[in-house]
From TrEMBL:
<keyword id="KW-0690">Ribosome biogenesis</keyword>
<dbReference type="InterPro" id="IPR005225">
    <property type="entry name" value="Small_GTP-bd"/>
</dbReference>
<dbReference type="InterPro" id="IPR032859">
    <property type="entry name" value="KH_dom-like"/>
</dbReference>
<dbReference type="InterPro" id="IPR016484">
    <property type="entry name" value="GTPase_Der"/>
</dbReference>
<feature type="domain" description="EngA-type G">
    <location>
        <begin position="178"/>
        <end position="354"/>
    </location>
</feature>
<dbReference type="InterPro" id="IPR027417">
    <property type="entry name" value="P-loop_NTPase"/>
</dbReference>
<keyword id="KW-0342">GTP-binding</keyword>
<comment type="function">
    <text>GTPase that plays an essential role in the late steps of ribosome biogenesis.</text>
</comment>
<dbReference type="Pfam" id="PF01926">
    <property type="entry name" value="MMR_HSR1"/>
</dbReference>
<feature type="binding site">
    <location>
        <begin position="8"/>
        <end position="15"/>
    </location>
    <ligand>
        <name>GTP 1</name>
    </ligand>
</feature>
<feature type="binding site">
    <location>
        <begin position="55"/>
        <end position="59"/>
    </location>
    <ligand>
        <name>GTP 1</name>
    </ligand>
</feature>
<feature type="binding site">
    <location>
        <begin position="118"/>
        <end position="121"/>
    </location>
    <ligand>
        <name>GTP 1</name>
    </ligand>
</feature>
<dbReference type="InterPro" id="IPR015946">
    <property type="entry name" value="KH_dom-like_a/b"/>
</dbReference>
<comment type="subunit">
    <text>Associates with the 50S ribosomal subunit.</text>
</comment>
<feature type="binding site">
    <location>
        <begin position="297"/>
        <end position="300"/>
    </location>
    <ligand>
        <name>GTP 2</name>
    </ligand>
</feature>
<feature type="domain" description="EngA-type G">
    <location>
        <begin position="2"/>
        <end position="164"/>
    </location>
</feature>
<comment type="similarity">
    <text>Belongs to the TRAFAC class TrmE-Era-EngA-EngB-Septin-like GTPase superfamily. EngA (Der) GTPase family.</text>
</comment>
């Protein structure tokens, strides 16, 4: 759905406009610049259009250097969240430096902007000046006197249509089958698990309706989701020569399976857990950016089952911190143990991989994380993180904006990674960071 941010310097009438659009007095309106400090967000209606409107804190003049004007982090976040910005200025006062600074920021942010001249109840004389902001001719409105709202509606309409189209595309994406692969060293029980999984799904769905197989994939439905399971030759009945399988662990076929997949189950042998090859495979999956979980198979062979998983947890988190917290499911292809937990865990990892954290929520998290533990100064360079967004998912990718971010230590990224995982339940997916320094 459409999200609209109201942006502009202090006291141009942003809150009044917000209140009119929302129809309730949510924002505190006051005649002192800078009174509306916090971001407010509410459902709004304008004729046939419903959308989310975000009111932002204005920019405020910074102490001694009047040109160094700061925009609150919430304003950045609001712009990042919005499909379109209503950039409001005060028509009675004309264009002032602070408006130019907002304009400069908005041009950099790259979001569509609708320029709005507010307080136009009497006459509008700053029309030519307004062009200098670079956003064309302003709509002339008076929020307080209910003038010009039809023009706002007309201006927002195309963006609403675009937002609807985007929603539909996202929905189509979510309805695509979940592509799953099962990988691991030879003899850990991949084909046994694979066949058992297909067998149990066949039992659930019936012999006919259920599963289709072709050369590369088996296809069925689980919990309302289409599952497409990569069916490598290695998972099929294998030629056995004198009791040995001919399959070697081939990096090539593992890579093929990983690249095919959204989500990868790494089967490991509970009696020989996390050998070097297991870690190489897991690392490959992480680098390819796929959702990942582990089936700790042959669990029936363990004599000491109690505490085994939590020991493995520690080992995994220490040897592969990039996938810390990835689900570990104890399974046995012999007894069937744990098989019922495998698909739900796959679906959960896939949800984490697809997760989108709204910008406002993300910046509340960031504020808290920074307060607990600020980034250290590195050889005298002051690193400053101003705000963050999540530009994409699959896997979740976060953009950090600030100054001197190239000096941000890896340990700090790990600190943020762990925090994000805990707070937003992102276990079972790699996370990515993009560093966007402005100086
Ligand atoms: P793959 O090479 O990874 O596909 O492994 P297979 O599925 O061919 O299994 C290798 C051997 O381990 C076979 O002899 C299986 O019967 C045995 N096996 C597989 N899963 C289990 C299990 O959970 N428990 C026990 N005890 N044996 C298993």
């Amino acid at each position: 759905s459409l999200t609209v941010a109201i942006v502009g310097r202090a006291n141009v009438g942003k809150s009044t406009l917000f209140n009119k659009l929302v129809g309730r007095k949510l924002a505190l309106v006051h005649d002192t610049p800078g009174v509306t400090r916090d971001r407010r967000e509410a459902p709004a209606t304008l004729g046939p259009l419903t959308f989310t409107v975000i009111d932002t804190a204005g920019i405020e003049a910074g102490g001694k250097d009047s040109l160094e004007l700061r925009m609150a982090a919430q304003s950045y976040a609001a712009v990042a969240d919005a499909d379109v910005c209503l950039f409001v200025f005060d028509a009675r006062e004309g264009i002032v430096t602070a408006d130019q600074i907002v304009a400069q920021y908005l041009r950099k942010a790259g979001k569509p902007v609708v320029l709005v001249a507010n307080k136009c109840e009497a006459r509008f004389s700053s029309a030519s000046e307004a062009w200098s902001l670079g956003f064309g001719e302003p709509l002339q409105i008076s929020a307080e006197h209910n003038i010009g709202f039809a023009d706002i509606l007309e201006a927002l309409m195309p963006f609403a249509e675009q937002a609807d189209a985007d929603d539909k595309a996202a929905e189509d994406e979510a309805n695509k089958p979940l592509r799953l692969a099962i990988v691991g060293r030879p003899n850990v029980g991949k084909s046994s698990l694979f066949n058992l999984l297909l067998g149990s799904e066949r039992a659930l769905t019936g012999p006919e309706a259920g599963i289709t197989r072709d050369a590369i994939a088996a296809h069925w439905q689980a919990e309302g989701r289409d599952i497409l399971l990569h069916d490598t030759a290695g998972l099929r009945k294998k030629a056995r020569v004198a009791g040995h399988t001919l399959e070697e662990m081939s990096v090539g076929s593992t890579l093929d399976a990983v690249r095919f997949a959204d989500c990868v189950v790494v089967v490991i042998d509970a009696t020989q857990p996390f050998e070097k090859q297991d870690l190489i495979i897991a690392d490959l999956i992480e680098r390819e950016g796929r959702a990942i979980l582990f089936a700790v198979n042959k669990f029936d062979l363990l004599e000491n089952k109690a505490g085994a998983i939590s020991k493995l947890r520690d080992k995994l988190d220490a040897s592969l911190p990039q996938v810390a917290g990835a689900p570990l499911i104890a399974t046995s292809a012999t007894t069937g143990e744990g098989l019922d937990r495998l698909l739900p865990a796959v679906l959960a990892a896939d949800r984490a991989w697809n997760a989108r954290v709204p910008t406002a929520t993300l910046n509340r998290f960031l504020e808290d994380a920074l307060e607990r533990h600020a980034p250290p100064a590195v050889s005298g360079r002051r690193v400053k993180i101003r705000y963050m967004t999540q530009p994409k998912s699959r896997p979740p990718t976060f953009a950090l904006f600030g100054n001197q971010l190239d000096a941000l230590p890896d340990a700090y990224i790990r600190y943020l990674t762990n925090g994000l995982r805990d707070t937003f339940h992102l276990e079972g997916t790699p996370l990515r960071f993009l560093l966007r320094s402005t100086k």
